């Protein structure tokens, strides 16, 4: 079939605002080779007409980089949390089902509020504390073996896919989720970040911490960057256990 004749069938779960009920709306979008989900949504934005030929409002979604770096375009595509920018139409079965991440509150249509994840990163101090008022120089060096696996953890783009796939992250649970746990491992391994290692581990001993992980291992299956999340969780669990003994015996 010629590219100009083929239509892509999309079924999108929409929501007018945070308080409205969700509903589904179908669209037929002209096909082009090498299209991704974002390009299909842009077509709907250009011509907001649904599959019944009725004029509607443009679908709202979030994206920034369009190259799987920012993590903003996360959504559920055919039942799996994925990045819309790197998901190609040709690799999907139709009709293509698009829905917002269910772990986070919906702002509108496919756009969600990921503040829960950012608050979790604050809770575990997922940063390297430095005094930036003067030149600190090159900083301490990391052993090459440590640098290699730490680089893999640093690929996290806070997309939220792992939180969406985790059955323990939901509105009724305070669990911070796999991504923040992996970031604890990353920053605890840094020579400067290690100065706050105990604070990060103490934060994981409280409500929503490491003990809330049910070890379903769904997170590592959906991570767009292939981050070894289950390995990180196991390592952090060991660190937390040792810290608990250290705190108990003073």
Any overview of this molecule?
It holds the Pfam family Fer2_3. Residues 147-177 form the 4Fe-4S ferredoxin-type domain. Keywords: 2Fe-2S, 3Fe-4S, 4Fe-4S, Iron, Iron-sulfur, Metal-binding, Oxidoreductase, Tricarboxylic acid cycle. It is a single chain. Helices cover 32% and strands 13% of the residues. It has helices spanning 37-46, 115-123, 144-153, 161-165, 178-189, 197-205, 218-222, 229-248; strands at 7-14, 23-30, 74-77, 80-83, 96-99, 106-108, 111-112.
Describe the SSE topology.
Layout lengths: L6 E8 L8 E8 L6 H10 L27 E4 L2 E4 L12 E4 L6 E3 L2 E2 L2 H9 L20 H10 L7 H5 L12 H12 L7 H9 L12 H5 L6 H20 L2
Parallel strand pairs: 1-5
Antiparallel strand pairs: 1-2, 3-4, 3-5, 6-7
Helix pairs in contact: 5-6, 5-8, 6-8
């Amino acid at each position: 079939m010629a590219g100009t004749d083929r239509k892509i069938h999309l079924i999108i779960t929409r929501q007018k605002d945070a308080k409205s009920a969700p509903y589904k709306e179908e669209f037929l979008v002209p096909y082009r080779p090498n299209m991704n989900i974002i390009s299909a949504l842009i077509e709907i934005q250009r011509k907001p007409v649904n599959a019944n030929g009725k004029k509607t409002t443009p679908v709202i979604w979030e994206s920034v980089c369009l190259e799987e770096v920012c993590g903003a375009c996360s959504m559920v595509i055919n039942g799996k949390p994925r990045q819309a920018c790197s998901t190609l139409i040709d690799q999907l079965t139709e009709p293509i089902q698009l829905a917002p991440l269910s772990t986070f509150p919906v702002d509108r249509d496919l756009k969600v509020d990921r503040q829960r994840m950012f608050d979790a990163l604050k809770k575990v101090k997922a940063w390297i504390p430095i005094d930036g008022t003067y030149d600190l120089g090159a900083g301490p060096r990391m052993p090459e073996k440590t640098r290699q696996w730490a680089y893999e953890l640093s690929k996290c783009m806070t997309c939220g896919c792992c939180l969406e796939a985790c059955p323990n992250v939901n509105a009724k649970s305070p669990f911070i989720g796999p991504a923040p746990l992996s970031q604890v491992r990353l920053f605890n391994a840094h020579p400067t970040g290690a100065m706050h290692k105990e604070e990060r581990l103490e934060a994981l001993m409280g409500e929503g911490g490491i003990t809330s992980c049910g070890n379903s291992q769904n997170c590592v299956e959906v991570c767009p960057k292939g981050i070894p999340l289950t390995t990180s969780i196991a390592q952090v669990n060991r660190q937390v256990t040792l810290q608990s003994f250290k705190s108990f015996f003073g």
